[in-house]
Amino acid sequence: MTFLYYFLLFLHFVGWAVVLGGTVTNLRTPRLAPGVLHGAITALVTGVLMVGVAEAALDADLNHMKIGVKLVVAAVIVTLTVIASRRKEPSRALLGAIAGLTTLNIALAALWR
C-alpha cells in the first residue's frame, strides 16, 4: 500500500503542476489551458484517495484540520476552473485567483506541520 500512496502522491503533484503552469503561462493572454480542469480534478481526487489510503492501510496519524482546509481550497480551485473553462475569455482576475489558490494549497502542504 505504500507504493499506492506514493503513486497517488506523484499524480497529485502532477495535477497541481498542470494547474499552476497552465494558469501562470496564460495570465498575459487570458485563456485557460486545455489541461487545467483535468489537472485540478486529478489533484482533488488523488488527494482524497491519499487520505483514504493513509487512514485505512498505512495507519498514519493525520492532521484532519489541515486536510479539511486543503480540501476546501481544492474544491474552490476546481469550481473556479469549471467557471473559467465555460467562458470564452476568462478574466485575468479569475486566472490569478486559480494560480494564487493553487500556490496557497501547495504552501499549506509544505509549511503546515
TrEMBL record:
This is Integral membrane protein. The lineage of its organism: Bacteria, Bacillati, Actinomycetota, Actinomycetes, Micrococcales. It comes from Georgenia wutianyii. It comes from the Bacteria. The chain crosses the membrane at residues 6-24, 36-58, 64-84, 93-112. Keywords: Membrane, Transmembrane, Transmembrane helix.
